Amino acid sequence: MKNSHWYAMLVFLTVISLFMTAPGCIKVNTGQKGPSAVVSDATLANAVDYEGKPINASTAFLVNAEVIYLSVRLNNAPANTQVLVKLTYLSGEASSLANTTMYNNTKPGQGTGYLAFAMTPPPGGFPQGNYSVSVSANGQEVTNTPFKVENLAANKAWPHINKFTVSANTVPQGEPVTLSWDISDATRVTLQPEIGTIPNVGTRSVTPMVTTTYEIIASNDAGATKSDVAVNVSPPLAGAPDLVITDVWLEGTMIYYKIKNAGAVDTPPTYTNIYVDNLFPPMGGSSFVDVLKPGQEKTLTFSSYEWPYRANPAQSWNPEGMTYYDPSLQNHTVKVCADAKNEAKESDENNNCRFKIWGILWDWDMLAVSNTAYYYNSWNALDPTEGLNESDSKGAHIKMSDGGLEMVPEAKPQGWIRGKWGESYTYPTGTVLFPIEIPVKTKFKATVGLASAAQGSDGVTFKLGFLDSTDTLRWLGSKKMTAPGVFEDWVIDLSDQQGSYGYFLLQVDAGNSFTNDFAIWKQARLLQESD
What we know:
Blueprint: H1 2-20, E1 39-48, E2 54-57, E3 60-62, E4 68-92, E5 100-119, E6 129-137, E7 140-150, E8 160-166, E9 170-172, E10 177-184, E11 188-192, E12 196-198, E13 201-206, E14 212-219, E15 224-234, E16 243-251, E17 254-261, E18 270-276, E19 286-289, E20 297-301, E21 315-317, E22 323-325, E23 332-337, E24 353-358, E25 363-365, E26 374-376, E27 396-399, E28 405-408, E29 416-421, E30 423-427, E31 430-434, E32 436-437, E33 442-450, E34 460-468, E35 473-481, E36 487-493, E37 501-510, E38 519-528
Parallel strand pairs: 3-7, 9-15
Antiparallel strand pairs: 1-2, 1-4, 4-5, 4-6, 6-7, 8-10, 10-13, 11-12, 11-14, 14-15, 16-17, 17-20, 18-19, 18-23, 21-22, 23-24, 25-38, 26-29, 27-28, 28-38, 29-37, 30-31, 32-37, 33-36, 33-38, 34-35, 34-37
């Protein structure tokens, strides 16, 4: 009798095993790695690479995190596999939000590879506390991973300004001074007025035209520390010469320039230097300038120097909007500086140099590649299928037939929508953005306004931002538009950002009302100018 029960149980288990492996039955991950798991290796991280693999994995994040990534691995997933990720706040400082779902998104996947989800915080950031993130495949839960969001401010020292000094407290108008600083325990340091974000240790030459107080602000999660120095500016020197370079040009292999004495008295004999790509030529980099009377201008040349570069005008156009040229062709920064040896005591010592850029200038039309940008609202990253209709409550990003881009903030007071631009590359797993470098003498030029149909809108604010290689977001400028059908040009000088690597952000903010906030970017491009 016992043998009979044992035999029946064996038959039952065999039938169940055959049923579970029958064609059409979905296999889901049980948390174990292996070839039988459709979805496995759910990993929380601070970033993902172009394939969606996790970078800097963690189970603890800061309250000011702009995004938390979840990466999952697909293992021979059949077509139309639907992977659902749900982020739940369990407990912590925001007790009223306990067991609230803060992110819920489904993505399709198939084959073998990685699938990444960018979980963005609600307005005000992730509340401190305990969370869980669950992953389901075709409706069946695969795994549930706990993690924490922490506020480290209580354990972190306030920023300390070890030094903030100026080379001279009083200078004649037009004379430069040097600001020097040394900051510790800061994650962000800014210098005002106008200069913006700076490194924790460094110097900066400034030329105030009026008495100016410079303020340095050092901040981290704990708070901000401030310090200031004043520079008193006296009237400019009377009865002094003033040498300026009024033009620079190339004829064949010879470089010519015009130099003028804009001052009130004769100049002594001086020398003018040329620098090419910030280097002083080993031969012929200096040009002699005889006495110049007030208002006199001369045309001179660097007679012993020959321009060594040859330009190939051939060029081709990338359909995504970036311009590519013959690899042998590049642009060159030329700087010509009068009074290079400081023989003249001038009324303005800060206007001696003139810059030119010769060769191919950078011109990036952001709207031409708007389809490759990543779009976000205050809650989530938008999927490619979202935000394609003006009535979408999550916000909209619609490429217009005339080449413009319509951006509509999410449907709530102070809602917003943001696009992130970088150099785009398309892989089998999707389009990936990489940071770009801001060239010298670059400006952002845009034309913005509200569509004629935006009747009843209380206006929107257009914003340009830059997310640098340290994931620090800097807003570079904003412009508010309120009248439907009215468009204005908008220019931002990016000279202070030259050499930085990162991503550009275009954002539109709603006001107290989000009604008919049909914001239009008619133009948005980055242009390098030669002069």
